[in-house]
Fold these 2 entries.
Entry 1:
Amino acid sequence: MRHQLYRAFFAAAFLLLWFGPGISAWAQDSTLRIGISEEPRTLNIWLASDANSRKVLSLIYQPLYNRDPETLRISPWLAESLPEYDPETVSYTVKLRPAKWADGSDVTADDVVFTVNLIQKFKVPRYYSKWSFVREVKAVDKRTVRFFLKEPKAIFATRTLINYIVSRKEWEPLAKKAETQEKPLTALLNTKVDHPLGCGPFVLEEWREGTSLYLKKNPHFFGQGQSINQRKLGPHVDKILFKIYGTADVAILGLKKGKIDFLWWAIQPGYLEGLKDDEKVKVFLSEKSALYFMGYNVRKEPFSDPVLRRATATLIDNNFFVKRVLQGYASRMDSIVPAENSFWHAGNLPDYGQGLSRAERIRKASALLREKGYSWDTPPVDDSGEIQTPSSIRLPNGRPMQKFVILTPPADYDPNRATCGLMIQEWLNGIGVPAIARPMSFGALLQTVKGNHEFDAFILGYGRLSLDPDYLRSFFHSSNDKSRGWNMSGYRNPEFDRLAEASVSAMDPDKRQDLIHKMQQIVMRDVPYIPLYKPQVIEAVSRQFTGWEQMVGGIGNIWSLCRVKPVD
Amino acid sequence: MSKETRSQKSYTWQRFLEGWSLFYENLVGRIGLILLLVFGLMAVCSYIPPLIDPMYHPMTGVDPDVFRSTPPSAAHWLGTDNIGRDLLSQLLTGARIAFLVGISAAFMSIVFGTLIGMIAGYAGRLTDSLLMRFADMIMVMPSLLVVLLLSSLFGQLNIWIIVLLIALFRWPGISRVIRAQTLSLKERPFIDTARVAGASNLRIIFRHILPNVLPMALLYMTFRVTSAIIVEAALAFLGFGDPNTVSWGMMLQWVWKTGHMFQAPYWLLPPGICISLITLAFYMIGRAMEEVLDPRLRKEEQKV
């Protein structure tokens, strides 16, 4: 008996020793730990505008269509197939995949209809502009939905259908309650959502505010075990833990020490050397659809003059930013549409100072300005063609140019843009243009530039520029030159407006491409925005996980998080 | 020049020489002074590198052949930052900024503190209570936090605004000390004599009290320089400094934000060490001056 007891004890100990570490490793590995920079601000999908809330919500709520990681074309996600367009009725028909919400109820066409109606009824910011041209939405049957458009819109399939769908069951009571309030939209946006009901790969398990947020696997996820676009989906992890790190240094240390598995955070190039040498860490460099630019307030003097804008564009050395400020982990931009978006990017654009030395740039810019009637007491180029320190520039009407401020985000928000502002200040000073770069808190900067238009120039960026170039219209169409409108520069050009309006309705891709190219040529001729650079995304993961799906924008995407799994 | 004035001047000179010899005998004071002279030399030398080559301009000069942070070399004795700017030029300019911020903020706070302290002490009663309660209110405010808040409200602050803010938050300590001195001074016979002779209050304050509290004010100035430099460095490090100024705090912010904190010790350490040493220098000088001014702190054989 005693021997049997001993044997049982040793067998148990052996089993524990043999499988124990394995079990604990498995238990640990099945949780993917992601480091993020800040706490998500909300789980209310209609309010979420910060990157971290959207990262979490992108794993809970799902859109009808997603972009294929390779081709970047729209591909069915919650929808079963590509939308069918009927030119006669100007309508799109979308068939849904059999799918369930996380509570086990079916995702139906009614939910889609409800989502669109809610956005239209409340005019939800960020979403309304994408759905405003939809006249009616009808549920044809339980899994088929039909969208009737007011007029043909090319952006419907590429921009509108990639928005999230919410559950009627979750939002109908909340929307009804909001409607009874004095300000329904504000009430809707302020609705506290503790447990968002989605149909994505994960659902919220727990949010410990200030430290971490847990997601767990959604057993009803429609993609589980399915192949979409030849990619077999999981998720293969049981949980996702979002850990909040205040600073990049601590987060990177956490990654190196194995405290997190993925840093969902654009890493500064300076950290790269230390990460590349680490055997436990894998670094991904990805292209990004982005635009970092300097914009002018063209509503008022002196930048209402396109010649002055062209001269300053000549002085700005984009290669300096790419090579030095971003350490080569970026590419130069010569248009508002990134060159990598090859179908839409236009050729034959003015290259301003490209390839010129600093002295040559100053000569070219001062010649441009002198021709237009600008003058100096001491010009930047002397009679023998040598560069000298100039006096302050005078406008063509003889008045000295007033000091003007280039607003940039502060260095703690984006050191690169703050540095670019300083360099541009110095380059413009070199030709007697009295520029001062002033970093300003990001919220105040947006308020100044978008709200009251009381500014001279600014440096901003779009980190997630849509692949459809409809943003060209948003940025420069005169109808968007309004308070909180997207036309921050106040650019107005009837020729551009006409082309922009035509481009929205052009259903033939080649015709639309031609229009988009012409729009870029006009913008780059008049330069209300000077494109500066497009950074690469530097991301790092632990080698404990594999299956990351790299696409434009990095590895932090729904495909990756549906496919990533622990290394065996 | 009358005979009396001349003898008064020679007396002042005599007192200064006595004070100086006491200061010079103090090892701590000597070290502080030497350190300060080194930093003074650095500040003066900061004008030289940009004259040698424009690439040594601390803000805009970049080495055309350097595209990333490089360790010390013959061309760049302390190395370069991530965009190819010379770190030594930045460090030398940082010394200039430290003096500018430290001395001007400390001077301003001394002026505010001394004036308010003297007025409160001399006037007494309600004025004293009001001024001192106001000083208490300012004293308990977390100055760094308030400056940070102001900075985030009004955008990035100019270096002179930062100096003024530091001064505005750092005077109450001095005003308390000066008030205490004034309270004791105003009871002395020479003040009564002046009053009886018909001197106005302003004359008594500025002609009779001020010269007596000035040494104490100057002593406190050395301590205020230290705190002003630290506040400016902290502000700059946290990203709220004047972006057009190359200060040591700014250098630390750049090394941190560009991700070179653990990659480039030649960039991280010099500004950090300089901040420590310059504040130490002022502190050491302050301690030595304290001994000169307060005979109770001196060793027995030094007491004069």
Entry 2:
Amino acid sequence: MADGGSFDTFPKLLLRNAAQFGNGPAFRHKDLGIWQTWTWTEVAGIVRAYAAGLQRIGLQPGDTIAIVGSNRPKLYWTVMAAQALRAIPVPVYSDAVADELAYVLAHADVKFVAAQDQEQVDKILSVSDRVPHLRKIVYDEPRGLRDYDHSRLVAIHDVIEGGRAALAGNPALGDQIDEIIRQGEGSDVSIILYTSGTTGASKGVMLSARRCIDAVTDTVRFDRLTENDVALAYLPLAWVGDHYLNYAQGLAAGFCMACPESGETVEQDLREIGPTFYFAPPRVFENMLTRVMIRMEDAAPIKRRIFDYFLGIARRHGESILTGKPVPVSGRLLYALGRLILYEPLKNVLGLSRVRVAYTAGEAIGPDLFAFYRSIGLNLKQLYGQTEAFLYVTCQPDGEIYSDTVGPAAPNVDIRIAESGEVQFRSPGMFVRYFKDQAKTAEALTPDGYVKTGDAGFFDEQTGHLKIIDRAKDVGRLADGTIFAPKYLENKLKFFPSIKEAVAFGDSREFVCAILNIDLTAVGSWAERNNIAYGSYQELAGHPQVYDLVTKSVEEVNRSLAEEKVMAGAQIRRFLILHKELDADDGELTRTQKVRRGFIAERYGPLVTALYDGSHEADISTEVTFEDGRKGVIAARVKIRDVQTIGAAEPFGRAA
Amino acid sequence: MRMPDTSEILLQVEGVSLAFGGVKALRDVSLDIRKGEIRAIIGPNGAGKTSMLNVINGFYHPNRGAITFKGRTRAQMQPFEASRGGIARTFQNVALFKGMSALDNIMAGRTLKMRRGLLWQMLRYGPALTEEIEHRHRVEEIIDFLEIEPIRKVPVARLPYGLQKRVELGRALAMEPDLLLLDEPMAGMNLEEKKDMSRFILDVNDYYGTTIALIEHDMAVVMDLSHRVVVLDHGVKIADGTPDEVKKDQGVIDAYLGIAH
């Protein structure tokens, strides 16, 4: 077992791993249908050659190098090689559109970019006149790039081989590289991660090597991760989650990072690799469950009966067995049988058989969804964190799991709740500052050195765990003073399988309204079973029977709100189903798939007005961006429904 | 687009005529296909385009005329001789083994390259295994090339049409052909699928250096993709040249738009 220990930079950890785990797997990548493996010794050798190669083409200590692409070993090695040279890697979201990319590349003053393939190279070249310091682009996959002007383009393979040749020809160069690694200090900025930009332009969060390693050392111990663990590195490279969970923990614990063949094959790769440490946002768990349920609906009746029966057993005893609470012998026996017949085969199909520790974060997870995975024996836990903390602020220890909390403070993290209700923390991994933004840095810190999370929350009295309700600035009040926490409502709505996205409005208004997105998979399958014909998403979304279906869910939400004294006044009185799916390409979601409420309110202004003026339909036409970057206009007439509220509240628009 | 490097002629069709009973499908047609080019055969319905492809790969035997492929002239050729000689094709309506996976379908394209006998292959041992691994490697390269990794193990019957076409192209590529015949590679595709397919055709030509002859109805596609175009109408060649030349040709315009009588 290993952790960060006394090592203060990642390249030093890499050398430690090469010495300690030598032939243990460090990276896997499926290429040409076969999983290729690189050991720690090999990776250390490659990174050394790569660093020498990058130095030859001009990468200096302190320079920034952007990394654009999906999870490929060569891109992770770029991070390592850059850190070895004391340069600063800046990963960028690979699905960023040209403008976003240009902003980050220019803001970070990048001199070099490592790109995955022709698509990314094209994107970078298209904005290269806006990136004044750009000198060279290195790329992983040569396909389609043969006819490009190679004065500024080099294949990563050639950089590595060039470095290897130079090292072979000049032993002093090797010493020089090793010397730079030795000189690396814990206070070096080891990476700049740009935030996804939920609120305006994205900020470059600078993290130092020492703090990163201290933070991961704590969590590697917390979850007892070792060199025998395996993680599937499929999260976006530029997201703190991937850099923390896979890269940093991988180096600290010495476990293997397996890179999927491509974004579309993740599911199959998951089954083949069988990771022992797994992270996925609630959305992924939800999609998995939806797919299982849809397939079960098509299964033979006898199989469905077995499935339902054993899921019932799991619901009753599974969680207790997982957390080690007392369970009657009969329950244990039935559960054991269920494991044999259902739970283990099901986990195997999902690729979760070997998972020892699984986390979810980013959004609230539905209680049923959470309970489902835990009941079939998956040790799924929640954490709460942010880029500024280098991920972890809180996390749930084994055995103390609740679906509506995010856990107590992570090891060595100090949390306090400000008077405004905002959560503030001090943590080992907390960021140094925002890159080139003194004002924002000052804004994010309290005078006594705590980081303001911008989230409102409170500590649950029974469990001592933190509960997050919403972004502090989003918590508003209705005209009559009732507390309005939009996210809280949206999450309740989204827990219904037919509702994919929800946007609630109500701040300074008289009542609450919502704009909804249906889930095409779930509603589509429901439509098929009920013989409802539809030609497009738009048509399905506007179907009266779909409205009926969704109305029931909204009423359900109102019923649950009515039970909570504080929230009872914030029941949803009117809603509409949007004619198109909210999309990050249209700026409606962030790259991490969170809704941008303000932007949506502006973009669909006429619809919001209609929600509040009592009309029963409204016209809207909006510009959309297609997958290939072209723009078009979608126009639609959207219907609005009134919903029954529970309790004293008078239903609105009865006469309208 | 890069022009082919040589003007060396890979395939020469000379004075070919083909008749089914009284129907004259081809009348004294001559055309050449140069090494490394993308050659389009266009024409209105019933012009004899598919017949031409079938003559080239030996499926039909012309009543008159000769075909010279890689310097060897013959009046008749069997399809298997054509494929052994390095001619591969795809079909207007996809002709895959529907129940087999995409991988197996492409693997089937390697059959002619397999050297070990049936017995060895049934044993799947020793030299046959080594050989299979080598073929699988080539097939995986094609899968990577055509970006169909996610559907490797999916039975083709379950795939959407555009992907089936791509698998069919993969199977033809697996033969490592010198000449690739594509019969309406974009028929029935939506805009995005057409774009993808066009890119793959250009990539195949560029990356593998494969000579391509294709039949296509979408004029925009033809004009963008091909180096030279031959136009057939009622079995007669009415024009031959670069896309620009053909576009301006009065005979072609008349054939497509009709003439006032």
